[in-house]
Amino acid sequence: MERENKRNYLIGTVEIALANSFVGLNIGINKYLVEKASVLQLLELRYLFGTLILAFFSLFLKKKFTFYLTEERFDARNWLLYLLMALSGGVLFNLIYMSGIDRTTATSVGVISSAIPTLIAIFSFFILRQSLKQIHFICVLLVVIGVIVLNLSANQLNSSYNYKSSYDVFIGNCIVFLAMIPEALFTILAKLIKVKVCPVVSGLIINFINMLVCLPFLFFTEAKITFFALDASIWIFSFFIGLFNGALFYTFYNRGIAKIDSQTAAIMTGMVPISSALFGIIFLREPFYFNTVIGIVCVLTSIYIGVRFGESSKVILTRRVRQSLK
């Protein structure tokens, strides 16, 4: 039994790592697309493709189209949590970060996303009532140092990318950082839902919800919808975003989060800055300054110490759970 639990834990860790790698790829691809179409158009296309892809898997590759894996069903509270989870990791996260990504680089976005593990740890303390350890404060310090060093390269980015100003790059980094808040809440909300559901069908519903939410805003803000006038490359890349970050992300994440704890899931988000930085440097030919190296080292160090010393770290704060009087 113990061996089986360890095996499931390892599989869950790999699944979460893969899911977060897809987020990093999403950052890099959107950095390329955001200059060619509006943010709402890109979001609608990615959720449309994500819905269609998962509908195909659900209807044609599964014998039974089912949402629940057990006899237990969602109550009103679970449906509310599920809706908030879908929107926080979907429209809210993507709308905010895509509004700032055109002001900075995919590498910078990846490094800033290293704040997610710390945010998850903080939210876990306040919402899930998990202990806050000394190691979390060290990780906070490393993240802050990494972001500060990253912003020191603003002048270099300005000369390389012809941005308006160093201040413009700084604002872009701040906007991207704000996007990490709903992304971190996605993990917390997922852990609050105890009813087991089918990962593929769950991903389908989440993509469909976000597609419906984006649609009225798209028609309201776009005077003339010109989807079919978009370049073919936008459709192709949007399909791959829908496949990797829409379909596969939610499938692997929903499978993995059921097998591991929120703190391990937080550590695995370190795959986001790594995959994003590699994509930006290799495919987008973004500059790789010494400041970027320091920022990435801070990220990798925070991940390592979180994994290595997380269990043995001293507990600093613990939330007491009030016992109900019988």
From TrEMBL:
GO cellular component: plasma membrane
InterPro entries reported for this sequence: AA-Vitamin_Transporters (IPR050638), EamA_dom (IPR000620), EmrE-like (IPR037185)
Keyword set includes Transmembrane: yes
Recorded topology in the membrane: Multi-pass membrane protein
Transmembrane segments: 9-33, 45-61, 81-100, 106-128, 135-154, 169-190, 197-220, 232-253, 265-283, 289-310
Keyword set includes Repeat: no
Main location: membrane
Keywords: Cell membrane, Membrane, Transmembrane, Transmembrane helix
Record's subcellular location: Cell membrane
Name of the featured protein: EamA/RhaT family transporter
Annotated ranges, domain EamA: 16-151, 171-305
The species this protein was found in: Fluviispira sanaruensis
Highest taxon in the source lineage: Bacteria
